[in-house]
């Protein structure tokens, strides 16, 4: 089925949402819900179809073109198609890297546009925001060096001039700039305050991947980002309201991040003791799977 569905997608235009959206979803689930052996073959089929990749290129570009002043409260068919496109490309990046699959056609993405989508949001639906963050995580994990992807943007062109002292950190973090990093971190913090479960999971995962990327590029910058005092206020905000327990997946994963990068000004020995005490008093068997997994990661890190 992959062959005819890929060919069908390649004959469509981005406006053919009724046909494209379920087709891209089928391709996405074909990658994820299969055996490793079949998965490798599925990746090869998708990446060998040039017309499909050209269609995906057009779909991604529509993210910046389809920007009505007031979006409907529910997910429109156009936004749903964009979600499917970003999630499929993020998956292709992941599996192409894993299996070192041959690439017949590259995709081009403007990094500044991607970052601005998260930083400024512009009333984008939560699901579209989550999909773009999944893509951002994929390129961060691959150090912006995927053979499937060409990154363009204002920071990607190498400068002929010798970098000035003020831009040395930007050079180390290339193609990211320090200002973009801090803007992104602040925006991720603000999105966490919304306490939307799906959004919180995506935001924390994106923050984890970003700090890991920074740590490889420049440890001082990574530790500086992880120890921002605003993080502590963010934790208090997440713990306010009805459920004050530390045993919330996003809280546990944030705590794990701060322990990993030794941000003692954000998480103290007292908070660590409180989490362990809550875990000791909880019925572990009744905890949701996401909470159990996050708790396991936290305790392992401690």
TrEMBL record:
<protein>
    <submittedName>
        <fullName>MEI1 protein</fullName>
    </submittedName>
</protein>
<dbReference type="InterPro" id="IPR052133">
    <property type="entry name" value="Immune_Signaling-Apoptosis_Reg"/>
</dbReference>
<dbReference type="GO" id="GO:0007127">
    <property type="term" value="P:meiosis I"/>
</dbReference>
